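=== RUN LOG ===
request id: a7f3
mode: sequence -> structure
chains: 1
length: 354
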Amino acid sequence: MDQKREQGRKLSLKEMVGTGGREPLRKLVNDKMKSKTQMEPSVRFLTHDDGFYGAFYEPETSAFPGKAMVICSGNEGSFSHAQAVAEKFCMEGMPALALGYWNTEGTPDDACMIPVEYMQSACRWLIRQKGLQPGVWGMSLGAEYALLCASLLPEIGCVIAASPVHILANSLSFKRAVHLTDRAPFTYKGIAVPYLAINKKEAGKYSSRMLRSLLLKREPDTTFYYKEIFKNPGHPEAEIMVENIQGPILLLSGGRDVIAPSKWICRQIMNRLHKNNFAYAYSHHNYEILSNYVTPARPVSASMFRIERTNRADCDASRENCWKDIMAFVRNRWTDQPAEEGTGPAEDTGTDEE
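=== RESULT ===
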């Protein structure tokens, strides 16, 4: 079948998510989002031995002396994707540690009650064993985790948040059918991090609405969940205190994100940083022709998004541009000193046509 016909035809649910059955989103979490990995890590970590699950990739010669990046994948819970992104950083000369903070051995099976201490233990290992200052790259849920951890752990010196959410709300469970729980997404020191509890009556509708979106729109549209969050006016305790982060912040969004309104979210974060006179550089790049997967390593399951099926070349080009922007930000903005007084954000721009 030629490429044009392949792009134009409707994909079955099985083709779209890479699996069949009644629970496509649940099965997607079972590491179906595999990305090709080519390198062997120099060190592996197990939760019961080291306090976190992960793999460390170290280049022969570092192009970023004294720096390292911790990598957190998203709601798909795919450690292999975190490894693929860590490899990309390593090939550029940046030591990188892929962190399996959920859906890995010894960690929560669901994206619920995830301890900040996994990140803390990984950062401490980088500092104590390698003498490296940790930065964090995260996508989607991993971006939430990255921003939250960096707001609580002063040892984190840089954050790259792709498709982030800035307000914590009910966690998602992928057991049996996908549904909202009444539990917090994250914990710190054994206590649930404050979050916005969505009305239980509304929460009960979400699982069927997600499946309905898959059937009717041929892609998983969950923006309604975040619209419910954002229409609640008073939730200061649930908003991540990004102004407490001790280093530069790069925010990345896709213009065709149907998981969350990430472009709008990034601008809300930018506004909060500006209002609080954030001391370090901060920047937002939006890539108009790109899905929620604002990642340098395209996962197999990207085809579940319509824009990734119909405009794959453009999405891949956006990812290439995004990777260049990430490396430029790390080289030019990740310093040990705050930004010069009055410089404000580095930029807030749509890198592609906007």
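=== NOTES ===
The two ends are 33 Å apart (CA to CA).
DSSP finds twelve helices and 14 strands in the chain.
=== END ===
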